[in-house]
Amino acid sequence: MKTLPLGIATFEDYIDGDFLYVDKTDYLYQLVKPAKAVYFLSRPRRFGKSLTLSTLKAIFQGKKELFKGLAIYEKEYEWDEYPVIHIDLGDKQATSAEELKKALDYAVTDVADDYQIELKSDLYYTRFHELIKKLSATNKVVVLIDEYDKPILGNVTNVEECEKIRDVLKAFYSVIKSSDPYLRFVLLTGVSKFSKVSVFSDLNNLRDLTMDAEYAALCGYTQEELEYYFSESIQALAEKEEASIEETLEKIKRWYNGYRFSHKEITVYNPVSTMNLFQTLEFQNYWFETGTPTFLIDLIKESQFDLETMEFEYEDEQAFSTYEINNLQVLPLMFQTGYLTIQDFRIDNEFREFKLGFPNFEVKEAFNKRLLESYTTIETGRVSWRLNKLIKALQKNDLDEFFQTLKVFFAGIDYDLHLKNEKYYQTIFYVIFKVLGLRIDAEVKTNAGRIDTVIQLNGRIFIFEFKLFDTAESALEQIKEKNYAEKYRDSGQEIVLVGAAFSPETKNVDDWVVMNESSLPVEEPVSPEVSPMIA
Question: In this predicted model, what pLDDT tens digit does every residue of 327-351 receive, in sequence order?
């Protein structure tokens, strides 16, 4: 079993240290094969973009021996050596346009020093052009730019300064177009994708690989790659879990697979989460350890984004694939940062439409929990504890304890926020039941409208109806009048009807009414299942 490359940053270190490398060089060969190519690739953070660039750098430096045993080694490729400009903006901290200019100037000068080139130009972008032109004296130049958008994303809440930063980057990247005669290959990577009238308005010769089906698995691991390269780790995990290989694979898939980047049904695993799983042999949330961007959570709250419809509606590609600094939208941000991915694709009246959803358990549970934490003053560690109390209360059929625990969440709300906004409270109900559904190993499906939920657990079916600013009795009457229980009467399980009311005075769950619709004996506990009912 080769050593897992956690914390290893470059392809050369992978090979020299005999670390496990999932061979992606067949894809890279297709990229480098043309005599000239200019590419752009957007992928979520921690998805292997930096490794991709460092691998390309080794290819263009002609280091063929590093690739022995990999797919590209046997290809018809010349292995010529090219001068490479490799700039990583991920470590170029800049809180203003002026700081960014200095950082870019330093990055260009650093490459020039490596090649012992003296630059005479004064401006950061003219120095970039001068560097390319002088390097091309020996051979055409390769330009690799990692985290091209980091200076923007690091300042996205300061719109005025962010627009200035965008203009600095726009001037810098426009050099690539004007330097076209001197270039062999260009690849820019990042998390976000701005519209073509923004950062890349002058760079109209880019081929965008972001949603190109041919490169959907360039970053991340396919199912076949997972089973082939990590077979020994999977065996070790199965032994620890005391489960079969098939059961273990299914659990790994549920936790970490599901990212899809094209209309084709090709899904991949997050590489960092997968590596950490096999390192620790523990199913945990690894991808979220770096944290959910605060600006994204704030945007969801401020825009009153309808989370209930997020996983059900089809969207035109333009609705989520690009965005503008001065008009941030929740959907494209969540897609490009990896919180949502493509679930389905269809062509409707010649329009390409995609349905988005959370990629897997890891992202879905952590995002919902983080969102729930943002709505309440309950300390982070106690949120998980109280969610577990809700589940235990349902397992015991103790609705009083359930609602007393639920009240704690609303008691912790910052009351300066949307106090009279019904959607605000609906969102909290929605997120709580989403997390409950995940934690009892079942899927909560909701649609537009009030959060009405059915939970099937331990031989009982709980049918919930919530009334905002109305009575619990009214909620219970609605369940009976609309005959919500009808579809469950042949299940052989006890049916519990629950009406609850939210009070405008206390701004909390004020009252609840419980009624057993059936006195059928409780059978052996069944696998938990959660689904919604919409009024």
Answer: 888 888 888 889 999 999 998 877 8
Whether the pLDDT of residue 502 is over 60: the answer is yes
214 near 184, Cβ under 8 Å?
no
Measured distance CA(383)–CA(386) in Å, rounded: 5
Q: Are 321 and 356 in contact (CB under 8 A)?
A: no
User: Where in the chain are the domains?
Assistant: 11-210, 223-284, 290-361, 376-532
* Nearest-angstrom CA–CA distance, 498 and 214: 50
Q: At what angle do helices 25-32 and 49-60 cross, to 10 degrees?
A: 60
Cβ-count burial 339-352 (b if 16+ within 10 Å, e if not): bbbbbebeeeeeee
Q: Label residue 251 exposed, middle or buried (CB < 10 Å: 0-12, 13-18, 19+).
A: middle
d(CA 247, CA 258): 17
> Which residue's structure tokens are 């094209």?
262
User: What does the pLDDT look like over 96-154, one tens digit per residue?
Assistant: 999 999 999 999 999 999 999 999 999 999 999 999 999 999 999 999 999 999 998 88
The Cα 20–Cα 1 span in angstroms is 8
> Does pLDDT of 304 surpass 80?
no
- What are residue 502's phi and psi, to 5 degrees? -110, 125
**If you search the block for the tokens 């999932």, which residue do you land on?**
22
> In this structure, what DSSP letter does residue 85 have?
E
265 residue type, one letter = E
DSSP bridge pairs for 37: 185
Cα distance between residue 50 and residue 145, in whole Å: 9
Both structure tokens of 100? 């960014």
How many Cα atoms within 13 Å fall on the side-chain side of residue 148? 28
pLDDT in tens, 231-271: 999 999 999 999 999 999 999 999 999 999 999 999 999 99
Q: Which residue has 């709505």 as its token pair?
A: 375
Contact 141, 85 (CB under 8 A): yes
Give CATH for domain 11-210: 3.40.50.300
Q: Distance between CA 291 and CA 162 in Å, rounded?
A: 22
The Cα 211–Cα 380 span in angstroms is 36
Q: Which residues contact 16 (CB under 8 A, 6 or more apart)?
A: none
CA 291 to chain CA centroid, Å, is 11
pLDDT at 535 over 50: no
Cβ pair 153, 337 in contact under 8 A: no
* pTM for this entry: 0.85
Q: What gap in Å lies between CA 143 and CA 27, rounded to an integer?
A: 18
